[in-house]
């Protein structure tokens, strides 16, 4: 959509991490893109409407699919094709060992000696799909977090930095492999970038979810930083820095990948007896991963909701999340045909659920009276996006 410094309203799409549960936001995005096409024609794509698309882990994969260019310099994937990608490839990314006792024991043993999956299929798939495309080539600005285990700090990849710094202009394939390298599930990823002067930088990365499973705040902070950086006059800079905190100047769509039903997955009486192994492996799940990923997503939602609700512009922030998942549907890797289809159904039904917003007192999602369904809210959001895009096209 162009340089962030030229905009009066900034548009943000954020997609959580969550493994195979990326199908849920995939379903939401297919619906949104179809509504945008009804408004503006069949050739428009999600990337035409958002200044920044941010995604973590599986959300980083979806982000790249939406923003990476094909040979015609248009998005590589239409939103309607995302779920087909998941249905086709995740059974090979996460091959199932079966429900037998032997399969469970084998999975447990593998978790003690190495990652549950070797990642070879995912690495081959992403390298084949994205080739040597780099971060600087995306069709709109993307922000994708990973975590550098050598430096023990987050590593945030953005299109802007990729254009400004050759050492951060990594291949999109390497970024996608890194942001999805969930500890215990997939191996860490290392690669090196070089610039024209022969300088190099090495990266040793794991899943961005350990830092920001919900990357919406990263996207907002990116806009604040870039608008401030492009102003030399201190007074103007102070005014521009307000952009990211002003609900009238932001349209933010944040898509969750679903989470387990509250208070039904683990309980304190059992967890109080867990040792190291149980926190890593409990009846086929990895509690420590589930917990930090959900905690990260909810805290960020709480913070962003506070910004918009406190300024009475809560409708400019739309968070769509399902916190009622149970059993296999709350897993990140049970890629059976039955479970994958179940996630498609969950995403479809989520569209018809009432709009919910986090209660700043309880942290739970509550139905918002008078705002209709998520589908209706997305249609209204699509109209706002369409209006903003048309305004920009007219001013060119």
Automatic annotation (TrEMBL):
SUPFAM superfamilies documented for this protein:
FabD/lysophospholipase-like
Q: What is known of its domains?
A: The nitrogen atoms of the two glycine residues in the GGXR motif define the oxyanion hole, and stabilize the oxyanion that forms during the nucleophilic attack by the catalytic serine during substrate cleavage.
Question: GXGXXG: where is this motif?
Answer: 17-22
> What does this protein do, in the record's words?
Lipolytic acyl hydrolase (LAH).
- Record-annotated membrane-spanning stretches: none
Q: Motif span (DGA/G)?
A: 207-209
Q: Where is the active site?
A: 57, 207
- Family the UniProt entry places it in: Belongs to the patatin family.
State the organism of origin: Cannabis sativa (Hemp)
In Swiss-Prot or TrEMBL terms, this protein is called Patatin
Keywords assigned: Hydrolase, Lipid degradation, Lipid metabolism, Plant defense
EC number, as in UniProt: 3.1.1.-
Q: Which residues form the PNPLA domain?
A: 13-220
List the molecular function annotations (GO) for this entry.
Answer: monoacylglycerol lipase activity; phospholipase activity
């Amino acid at each position: 959509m162009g340089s962030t410094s030229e905009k009066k309203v900034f548009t943000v799409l954020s997609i959580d991490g969550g493994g195979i549960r990326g199908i849920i936001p995939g379903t939401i995005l297919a619906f949104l893109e179809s509504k945008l096409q009804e408004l503006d024609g069949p050739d428009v794509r999600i990337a035409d409407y958002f200044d920044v698309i941010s995604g973590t882990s599986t959300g980083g994969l979806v982000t790249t699919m939406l923003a990476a260019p094909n040979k015609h310099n248009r998005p590589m994937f239409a939103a309607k094709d995302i779920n087909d990608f998941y249905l086709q490839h995740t059974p090979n990314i996460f091959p199932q060992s079966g429900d037998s006792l032997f399969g469970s024991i084998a999975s447990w043993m593998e978790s003690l000696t190495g990652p549950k999956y070797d990642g070879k299929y995912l690495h081959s798939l992403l390298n084949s799909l994205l080739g040597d495309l780099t971060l600087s080539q995306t069709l709109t600005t993307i922000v994708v977090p990973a975590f550098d285990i050598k430096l023990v700090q987050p590593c945030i990849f953005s299109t802007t930095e990729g254009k400004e710094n050759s050492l951060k202009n990594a291949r999109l394939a390497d970024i996608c492999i890194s942001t999805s390298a969930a500890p215990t599930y997939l191996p860490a990823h290392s690669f090196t970038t070089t610039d024209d002067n022969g300088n190099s930088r090495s990266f040793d990365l794991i899943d961005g979810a350990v830092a920001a499973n919900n990357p919406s705040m990263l996207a907002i902070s990116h806009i604040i930083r870039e608008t401030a950086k492009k102003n030399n006059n201190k007074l103007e800079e102070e005014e521009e820095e307000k952009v990211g905190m002003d609900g009238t100047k932001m349209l933010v769509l944040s898509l969750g990948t679903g989470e387990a039903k509250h208070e039904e997955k683990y309980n304190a009486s059992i967890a109080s007896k867990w040792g190291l192994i149980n926190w890593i492996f409990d009846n086929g799940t990895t509690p420590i991963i589930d917990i930090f990923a959900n905690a990260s997503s909810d805290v960020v939602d709480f913070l962003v909701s506070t910004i918009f609700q406190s300024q009475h512009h809560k409708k400019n922030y739309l968070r769509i999340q399902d916190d009622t998942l149970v059993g296999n549907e709350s897993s990140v890797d049970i890629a059976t045909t039955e479970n994958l289809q179940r996630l498609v159904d969950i995403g479809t039904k989520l569209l018809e659920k009432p709009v919910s917003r986090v209660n700043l007192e309880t942290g739970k999602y509550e139905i918002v009276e008078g705002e209709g369904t998520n589908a209706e809210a997305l249609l209204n959001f699509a109209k706002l996006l369409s209006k903003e895009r048309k305004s920009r096209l007219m001013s060119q």
